[in-house]
Amino acid sequence: MATDEVEAVLANWIEQALDPRGRLSDGISPSAWVVAQFGAWWRARIGHDVNDAEHAAFGAHDELMRLGGWAFFGEALHELTDVRDSIGDLRRVLRLHDEPVS
């Protein structure tokens, strides 16, 4: 995804939020509305990629375990654990509520 695409999407929502012809629901600030719109758009754009990364990390872990496990690949398995933890953190921060791969 290009940076200019993100900028264009945000610029559009900022313009909509500040347009005097429109009206946001009572209690919703323009900034809160823009954040909500962007969050939903962003999650839809990257959710599949996060799932793919998580699936690949679990697959690599399973394959290393099949080939000899911790005795042969301890450092790589440790790094994969860090990758899986980081993907889980991204999932929580980005509010990607799909069930994690296992």
Which structural class matches the secondary elements? mainly alpha
H and E order = HHH
- Main sheet makeup: none
Integer-rounded radius of gyration: 20 Å
Which of globular, elongated, flat, extended, rod-shaped describes the shape?
A: elongated
Amount of beta strand: under 5%
Average pLDDT, all residues: 90
Which percent bin holds the helix content? over 70%
Query: Which stretches of 5+ consecutive residues score pLDDT under 50?
Result: none
**Count of domains:** 1
Number of helices: 3
The N- to C-terminal Cα distance equals: 27 Å
Q: How many beta strands in the DSSP annotation?
A: 0
Task: Characterise the protein shown here.
- The protein starts with a helix and ends in a 9-residue tail after the last helix.
- It is built from 3 helices and no strands.
- It has one domain (3-93).
- It has 102 residues and is mostly helical.
What's the arrangement of secondary structure elements?
Blueprint: H1 3-18, H2 30-66, H3 70-93
Short structural summary:
By secondary structure, the chain is mainly α.
Write out key terms for the chains shown.
0% strand; 102 residues; mainly alpha
